[in-house]
Predict the 3D structure of the following.
Amino acid sequence: MPELPETETIARDLHQAVAGRRISGATVTRPDVLREVTADELHAGAAGRVISRCWRRAKLVVLDLDSEDRIVVQPRFTGALLLDAGELPDEELRFSTLAFELDDGRRLHYRDIRRLGTVALMSPPRFAAYMGRLGVEPLDPTFSADHLSGLLRGSRQAVKQLLMDQRRVVGIGNIYANEACWHACIDPSRAADTLSDTEAATLHAAIVDVLTESIALRGTSFRDYRDAHGGRGRYVERLAAYGRGSLPCPRCGARLVETHAIDGRSTVLCAHCQS
């Protein structure tokens, strides 16, 4: 968390709000979030540069600069990029790790409560190499039911683990892996290569539908996620499995089971519907 819908929401908000703005400086207060760059190097590489585009890749928020370098933010569990026109609440400011000053007087903070996320400044070759390690985007046309079926056939991993493997499919984390498996009526602990082509097609449709609906509702604010303006995502109201262990299954009414046996993380499923 944040996963694909949350980082997509942040990136869209930022593109609308700051694309074309010039960065006047960067102030780092918690340098332990920096990767591949020092605080001085971040300031030197960002100051005076125009943000030409904000976009998402996998679970990353990417800010393209007119120098062709890129600021790459990986929010992980509690990170957020928050715009501040002087009204950001103190409880958010106290967890700010760095801030980019913009030419219109606003600041763009990277807030991270647990400081497990990262901020990097990457050259074009470094960025290309970094992106080359990532898998297919699940909302890209190349991610077809046949493509997913091929990934499943080639793995003995549990289905949920495969969906969360960023080398295969990007952007899906614990929340949406749980939800997609529930919607597809598939046991998340099943070996991936045991799924039929029909089940793979059903799972593919569930992944696309869940991610698309969550983006439309601006993501899931289960705990710490906030969009670029500090707002909460509304998909939490639609969650059918994640975070609902021991509650009734929305489909059949059986009690949902929560386990940590698959990958050490919380997996919630309906033993009746997803058998």
